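Journal club prep — side note

Before the paper discussion, L.F. wants everyone to see what a predicted structure for a comparable chain looks like in token form. Sequence:
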Amino acid sequence: MRERVRVIMYSRPGCHLCEEAERVLATVECADLFDLEIINIEREEELRRQYGEQIPVIFIAGVKAFTYRVDPREFCRKLRRLMAQAR
């Protein structure tokens, strides 16, 4: 059994780009390869300062991969590349 990759999306309530990114990540063809954690930047001052209006920000296995919009094909390509590098 393959280990799943951790994907983190920094978000905030009411962010339409964040909602769009979440929908994309829920339906990508490689969805069975990762676990998504959504972090609300409003809960931590440091995250609000760091990301501000530049959300969503998506990290794949600790590597910043996308800001604002997520292309589903590119997401899966990056995910698989990072998985191969981790082996």
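L.F.'s comment for the group: The first helix runs from residue 16 to 27. Keep this in mind when we get to the figures.
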